[in-house]
Request: fold
Amino acid sequence: MMSNFKFALPVLLFMLLAFTGFAQTIRGTVKDTAGKGVPYASINLKGTGSAIIAYTVTGTTGQFALNLPADAPKSGLKVEVSCIGFNKQAKELTDFTAPCNFTLGIAVNQLQGVVIKNSRPFLKTSGDTTGYKVSDYSSPQDRVIGDVIKRLPGVQVAADGKISYNGKPISNLYLGGDNLLDDKYNIATNTIPHGAVDQVQVIENHQPIKMLKDKVVSEDVALNLSFKKDAKLQLIGQETLGGGIPGKYDENLNAMMFKDNYKAINYLKGNNTGFDVAEDLISHNVQNYLQRIDNNKPGTMLSTGTAGDPDLPRNRYLFNQSGIINLNNLVHLKKDVLLRANLYYLRDTQWQDYQKRAAIYLPNDTVNYSETQHNKRRPDILHGGLTLNINKDNYYLNDDFIADYNHNTSYSALTTNGTPVNQVLKDNIADFSNEFNLMQTFKSNNIIELSSYINHIAEPENLAISPGLNPQYFNNGLPYNKLNQTVNVPTWFTNNYVSYKIPSDYVIQTYRAGFSLQKQTLGSGLNTTQVDNSVNAVTDSTRNNLNWSRQKLYTQAIFDYPGKVLKVNLTLPLSLQQTNYSDGFFAVDKKSTHLYFNPRLFVKYQTGVENYLSLIYGIRNQTGNITDIYRGYILKDYRTLLANNADLTEQRDQTAALGFNYRKAITLFFFSVSAAYDHISANNISSSIVNNNIAQNIVLPFANSTNSLSLSGYISKYSFALRTTFSGGLSWQSSSSNQVQNNILLPYKTISVTENAGAETKLSSTVNISYKVIYNQLSSKSSAATSTTAIRSVFQQAAINYNPTERLEFKLAGDDYYTHTGTLNNQKYVFADASVRYKLKKLKTDFELSANNLFDTKKYNALYLSANNFTSNTYTIPGRIILLKATFNL
Reply:
């Protein structure tokens, strides 16, 4: 028996080895595109009909060995590899002995939107987009979408309508994904009924050009309004007619359409109730735009020297008689091709009465002057814009043509230090520009870009002052009738470049080369009209005929790393700039050449799914413009003479900023904090000679610098238990600067502190309450003086809304202003408003009776501080206004 077993064992082992020899093993590796092994990838051997014959997984280095069963078919087999985060891949199995190697590409999968289902308010998040459902935050008293946006957690709206998200200003507001208004989005927030909007969506890392998405790091945050289905299918409109006392009217006729292929906001407004229709036309990001195209437009040089606006909402102090027609239309000619037209005309008349006391503190003296003014402005503003946009995955074209004509006339009857003066300022602006941009993707996936911008602007200004003012300065001490200042700076500017972009899996490279050209002429003259009506130049030193040209050649290297966790943008621009200017009146003929390197670094690090750190550092070298180097005196206003006695201004600006943004969507909690430092060094300094009658300013060739440090924070939280959005903010800024007054160097340090807090609550379905408080403190001190001047102010605003029925609404609101200084009595003002609205649902009409400024306050005193200049302005403001309005809804 034992002998049989000894004989059978070798036979059994032989048969087993023979069987194993006939079975085959498929070997190979699985790696990613970087050549690194992919561990734990699934390896499936499939036959016909996708049946799995054998299965294994890769080891830690990406290697695998897959045994082929002896009874497996020898044809029609394939090996399939899959792994989370990678694209699935399969190969036909034809050679059983050759290695079966795979290289898997990374799968780019958009995560599904996360929806938190709850009866309470919530945010819908999907990638970089966060959505607020409008119905969760709206109230029965709301009329337009701007009323709702003010209540959204994490969103702030400034007094001028500028919108920020978690402390960062938005770049644009889109309507159903379309750019109808550019950055003039007050038109939308002040016009679109909130009931037409389904969601307000916040888009972070926003990139509007499709072919650059995920290829260029974007710092922008944008808003998009998504509309309800029924709002897309019909014409929307609200027509308001109103009248009241004393002699007031308010009209608003509008029509809107928000179809997928056609969008429009067209309206006609007119009123004399203090509502400034020009607030709709504010371009919130115009300075960023001009800096991007490197266009330094000349500003208005003359003024009537009137006081600024008080720190009140504009409708509290404005006397006006205004009207506007505003037409904005966008049509999709076909997919990804749109044509947009924007046209408006505004005509207004505004009045202002005020008294002013000013004090300029000097180490050994204080200059005082007082005045009363009765001012009138007549602006006429015409604007037209036409845009063609093609935005495809591999092709982009955009052409913007803009034309503006502004005709402004200002009248001022004033008495300064007992001397009566009449002023008339005529200021006409003609401005047109065209910007063309083209991008094309090659088969290699590289992108070429061509850009061309051209602009022309002219602004003839004329300031007439009568009777003859300060004859000891302007007419050798002899009486005369009138003083007349003229100035104009016509300007041509063009900027053109070509760039080439090389995308890759890691760093996207962009190389750009271009040139810009600016040509200007500054012409001015100051003349007197004598008692015999003859006209004479004041002196030879009060005229200018300055010719100016600036040429720039530049290159740029831009490197973008658009990672999911880390995003980096490094811009390395190098420019060669030559400036020429000459004026035969003063024997000036100069040329300067500069080579500038202005690097900028932006880093964004995602510390969590909803939190990130940001860092910005940049150096900007620049030279001044034509208004820095004219030699002849220009009378800016009735008491200020300006001139220059220095070479062209050269500045070096270093900026560093660090920020942290935190968001927790599920609890509706937002928080941000930032710090910034700015240092500017220049080769000249402003000097002034000031007395009780006139100020003479001149630029001197001495080194100068300014420093600024700022800290800011913002917090917003929605309390589900209290149904309330709480918000708060804090900002602190310290700046130091130098100036020369009456031949004394005065270094100044100014500290500004602002604190604010607010709450928006729904006590019930019928009662809403809102409250906010703002504290400001501004102090200024010179090392050459022993005292510090400071202003402290507190502003409080509260409102309560009560809806006893669906048809009836009551609102009561109030503002409280308190200002304290160490030199004057405290200033305190209280304003109150009330309204009642009744709705007729069947007629889609509601009637509203409102009373503004119930306490009939007609005077307001405002205090201002700038370095060593302290002013106290007393304004005449409209008293009580009672208005009855009827609104018809289409």
Summary: The radius of gyration is 35 Å. DSSP finds eight helices and 54 strands in the chain.
